[in-house]
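Box 3.1 — From sequence to structure: Sfi1 spindle body domain-containing protein
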Amino acid sequence: KQLAKKKEMIDRNSKLLTAELNEMAKQHYNNVLIKKVFKAFKKFSSDVHSMANSCTQMYERKLMGKALAAWVFETKTSALKKNQLADNYYYTNLIKKCWNIWLGLHREYKMKVQVSEDMYCLKLQERMFRRWADFAAECYLENCCKTELAERLHRT
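Predicted structure (token representation):
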């Protein structure tokens, strides 16, 4: 009986030791598993964080690119409008300047035409007056000659 009790006690101790060792092994397995899980989670979290950073950087680059493209478009549009306004202003001033120059030249031309007509009339009047004076002098001389001839004929 004692042997059976000892054997039973050894069996019980062996079972307790096995149970305790199994519990320790289970605890060790759980600890290793938790370490592996947390290590994988840490790596995944780090990867997610780095992906989030790269995604944020890409988003910011895209956003900056879109903003830059919008700014460039707006700048080009504004510059084009300003250039068109400047061209219109330049062409308007050029047309006004050309018109004023042409108008001045036209007035000068009309004045020269008027002066030339007046000079022509004046020269024509002078010429006609000279001709008339010559004709009148000729007529006077002719009349004088005729009168003198008539007086001479009358006296004789």
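Summary of the box: The mean pLDDT is 92.
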